[in-house]
Amino acid sequence: MTVGCGTDRVILVVDLTGEKVELSERLGDCDLRYVLAGGGGWGYGDFQLDPLSLDYLTRALNEIDDALTRGSAWLALVDAMLDARLGPERLFDTLTQALARESDEQLANAMLGDLSTVWWRFFTPSMRQERAAQLEAELRQGLERAESPSFKAAWFRHLRSLAITPETVSWLRAVWLQEQDVPGLVMAESDYTALAQELAVREVSGWLDILDTQLERIQNPDRRLRFQFVRPVLSSDREERLRWFLALRQLEARRHEPWVIEGLRYLHHPLRADTSAALVRPALEMLVEIQKTGDIFFPTRWLGATLNGHGSPQVAATVQAFLVEQTNGYPPRLSELILQNADILFRAARTRAFQD
Predict the structure, then answer these.
(1) Could you give the CA distance from residue 81 to residue 41 in angstroms, rounded to a whole number?
(2) Reading across the β-sheet that carries 8-11, which strands appear in turn?
(3) Helix 298-307 vs helix 257-267: angle between axes, to the nearest 10 degrees?
(4) Nearest to residue 61, comparing CAs of 4, 117, 106?
(5) d(Cα 79, Cα 56) in Å, to the nearest integer?
(6) Is residue 124 very low, low, confident or very high in pLDDT (cuts 50, 70, 90)?
(7) What pLDDT is recorded for position 356?
(8) Per-residue pLDDT tens for 34-75?
(9) pLDDT tens profile 153-179
(10) Cβ-count burial of 81 within 10 angstroms (0-12 exposed, 13-18 middle, 19+ buried)?
(11) 106-141 CB burial, b ≥16 within 10 A, e <16
(12) pLDDT per residue over 16-34, tens digit each?
């Protein structure tokens, strides 16, 4: 257990053998700021933050000078949001403030991943519009501030995946056109490919030409074939995207499973969640066939790619209804996989039900 006493950290070994543990004598005149039951990284369980700790950590996370303790505190805050004890807006504010000062690259990468989850799954579209300029400014500043190439790449990767304002999307387009450099960042072919795909999903001006040009840029034959396979899902034409998905009912179309997973991620991209929601049920209905004909990990990846772009109560209800209907003979393992992969969806839907 780690206890914040003023600016100091006190580490205690505590036996949790009863309903309460008295620590006042061991702490003396501690100026109590926070209590982290898993602060040393050893605890495993649902350690709920008390109101005092929750308030302090959301305001002053970066005042903790130890990266391991900061990481433990951050995980406790994320758990609080997932359990609806902390609103996603407050976690978002804490995150942007903390990232502006976070020097530990590993921890910052984890925070950026959590930022993506909050942004796409717990925020409604209107909430994203309200905060987009702020978020993108923070990401641009982080990109400029990062010193190592790997850290810059992480900031840029999240900037291209989260940006929605016309100004930032236009800047990203200039980067793809190689009219705009990103100081300190070397762009590989895979970076330009991913950027082209993100621009197409956002339907920027000339998105079709961007895809044509990017295909010409790709030199490796296998990567060209993969790009061509995924390309229909990037189209602005809803019917073209539907035809791509329906073709997956044929085993031959699913032969390259990593290609299929990439396509599903773009099919269910959060910016297209409204139109792809109708395809969640058919994807679930294909799961038994996916298990029979694919790699052992394909069902899990299929579910993740299908559900990770969604956070609405409507899609959560679709998944729940499907599970209720699968009674006699449905493989228990698949029911468990659906529940595991839908966990964040259910939590996000519960939160968003009070936001809409």
Answers:
(1) 20
(2) 8-11, 2-5, 32-36
(3) 20
(4) 4
(5) 16
(6) very high
(7) 57
(8) 988 877 777 777 788 999 999 999 999 989 989 999 999 999
(9) 999 999 999 999 999 999 999 999 999
(10) buried
(11) ebbbbbbebbbbbbbbbbeeebbeebbeebbebbbe
(12) 777 777 777 777 788 889 9
Tell me the torsion sign for CA atoms 171, 174, 175, 179: negative
Residue 241, Cα to own-chain centre: how many angstroms? 23
Buried-state track 276-311, b at ≥16 Cβ within 10 A, e below 16: bbebbeebbebbeebbeebeeebbebbbbbbbbbbb
Report how far residue 158's alpha carbon sits from residue 142's, in angstroms, rounded to the nearest whole number.
11
Is residue 151 over pLDDT 60? Answer: yes
Tokens representing 43?
């605890």
Structure tokens at 118: 């909050």
Specify the residue for token string 């030409």.
209
Closest by CA to 192, choosing from 208, 210, 169, is 210
* Cβ count near 228 (within 10 Å): 13
- Per domain, the residue ranges of the chain are 268-356
Q: Tokens 């100091």: give the residue.
A: 8
Dist CA 347 CA 122 (whole Å): 8
| CB neighbourhood size of 180 (10 A) | 12
Across residues 182-209, what is the average pLDDT?
96
pTM equals 0.92
Cα separation, 290 vs 76, whole angstroms: 36
Instruction: Tell me the pLDDT band of 285, cut-offs 50, 70 and 90.
Output: very high
147 has a pLDDT exceeding 60: yes
